[in-house]
Amino acid sequence: MLRTRTGEPFTDYQQLWEYSVADLPGFWRAVWDFYRLDEIAESPLADGDDAVLASTEMPGAQWFPQVRLNYVDAVLAHRDLPGEAIVGLGEDGARTAISWAQLPALVAAVAERLAQAGINAGDVVAGYLPDVPETVVAFLAAASLGAVWSGCGQDYAPEGAAARLGQLRPKALFTATGYRWNGKDVDKRADSDALAGLLPEVALHIVVGDEPGASAPGRLAWADVVDGASGSPRPVPVAADHPLWVLFSSGTTGRPKGIVHGHAGVLVEHLKSAGLHAGLGPESVFFWQTALSWMMWNFQIAGLLVGARIVCYSGSPLYPDADRLWQIVADEKVTYFGTSPGQLQASRKAGLAPGRDHDLSALTTLGSTGSTLPADLFEWVHQALSPELEISSISGGTDVVSAFAGGSTGITARPGELPVRMLGVALASWSPEGRPLVDEVGELVVTAPMPSMPVSFWDDPDGARYRAAYFEHVWSGGEQPTAPVWRHGDWVTLTGRGSLIFHGRSDATLNRQGIRMGSADIYEVVEGIDEIAEAFVLGVDGPGGAYWMPMFVTLIPGAELTDELVGRIRQQVRTRLSPRHVPDEVILAPGIPHTRTGKKLEVPVTAILAGRDSVNLDPKSVDQPELIGWYRERGSAHSW
To answer: Comparing C-alpha atoms, which of 159, 194, 160, 201 is closest to residue 175?
Structure first.
């Protein structure tokens, strides 16, 4: 299509990427046409570049300004496909499925009940749920009405969920009676009721798992809502920038930010990412192990946009052991499996050989995100699974609910690298002075708009918080960019080959003797040591220019932090990185604190170790909040 339109041969990916960022309207019109979005829009996309991108200002780019459509229509365009659309698996092995033929009626039934409760376009519908098929249906039903969806995993306590969802003043709430985790049933009925009580504008509360007939005023059992479901929904056409969903930042250092994305922007971005980069289509089975609080849940739904079957799993990825997810991949004949470096590391350290022990013949691509995928795990995957398996380590964020860089079908990734900048993403690496860099570590910036950049932050009427989050960085040297650029907060090396190496968060930079170092580089070395379960390295500024760089570690069962192991850690870091990267101390920790989406809490814990009283760390946003006191004691005990 593009060859015909442009007359360019597009003989390699780099040439295609350069075109995609040089002619944003032309590229995104091609995506629109390739996926035949005129068929679901209220009227065809008009001619001219302005019909695609009327303003390139960031923030505030105007994408598809005259378009009216609904994300859900793009999913239901596949309703005539045979077979299953959504598979649900529990930790106990229970399996449910929704076929493509059944999906429209279920969405229609739930949408009708929402509408009967007065839910209209622009109202907020919240989910407090595990990763089950009903969650996907609830989202599609809400979005079909033009309502705004926002979800939170049930691992959050009611107060933590309310800190997010309460900002949105939802009028409807979906919850579940519970889920199973690490071999135990977790009863969430009381928590769900408590959350409903913390959301005073909720007029309708639908509960997945309630017995049929257990309804009460304002509360319905899911089974009753979908009983006898028939018919088909009529999605409401909305403006391109009409809110589709609100995702939340981690909220570890303040009130979580509500990040609003629009219907059309997400639709074209996810079609590009799932269809063009991941190579998904009607023959695909897409499984990304995730949770409702993580943007990968939203991205997994993109599989439905291209007609793929998606797999939802509610349970621990490591119960009863590290082989659990590989068994699912084999049983469900998954073609694209998405996971985390942590799960792959656990599989490696457990001595697994999934390619030998399971039939993974359907699997063509392994995706990974959440943190940097170390080079040794690339090598392990090719040894333990298949040397032909494509590995797509991706990096993006909740902010754009997509990836900036990663793998792309048909492109081989070098170990430790992300092979390409994604199409339509004007990604660059800049020096502290705002100078483009190649083969040097710099700040990740995006110099032109993406369709899925936020349309706004929630309750940010003048856009001040949105601008401050990405666009107000002051570059060194005095001279600033002529137009705002998106600064994401990652250290990255853009190689001369066009691939990328990520080094960690730039706001958590280790800076010893004036040399900037990325924590991800150290984690790659240390977490590759068999005895180490996880590492956590921090750089703490002290009085009189003093600098303390401790490394906290957790160990696999049965291992001990001996002098020999500490020496091996130091030697590996010194040899594979540099003497400057060697930590001052290696300290055995009872745990490593993370956000509830798995990000290490480097920035706030560094401040805590420094003894700062101004650290505003919300314990509801931390996976193990009891650890914070332990780290505070370590900081107090340190002698400068």
So the answer is: 194
Q: Between the CA of residue 298 and those of 142, 293, 523, what are the distances in Å?
A: 14, 9, 28
CB of 139 closer than 8 Å to CB of 151: yes
What's the rounded Cα separation, in Å, for the pair 459 and 150?
15
The 10 Å Cβ neighbour count of residue 7 is: 7
pLDDT tens, 350-384?
Answer: 999 999 999 999 999 999 998 889 899 999 999 99
pLDDT digits (tens, 9 = 90+) for 533-571: 999 999 998 887 788 999 999 999 999 999 999 999 999
Over the range 111-129, which residues count as b (16 or more CB within 10 Å of their CB) and which as e? Answer: bbbbeebebeeebbbbbbb
CA 461 to chain centre: 26
- Distance between CA atoms of 305 and 91, rounded to whole angstroms? 27
Question: What SS3 state is found at 411?
Answer: coil
Dihedral angle over CA of 81, 82, 88, 92, nearest 10: -170
Single-letter code of the amino acid located at 274: A
Cα–Cα distance measured from residue 70 to residue 68, given in angstroms and rounded to the nearest whole number: 7
Backbone torsion region of residue 534, taken as left when φ is above 0, otherwise alpha when ψ lies between -120 and 50, otherwise beta: beta
User: In terms of residues, how long is the chain?
Assistant: 640
Give the residue from 606, 590, 600 showing the smallest Cα distance to 622: 600
The C-alpha atoms of residue 480 and residue 503 are separated, in whole angstroms, by 25
DSSP string across 366-391: EEE-SS---HHHHHHHHHHT-TT-EE
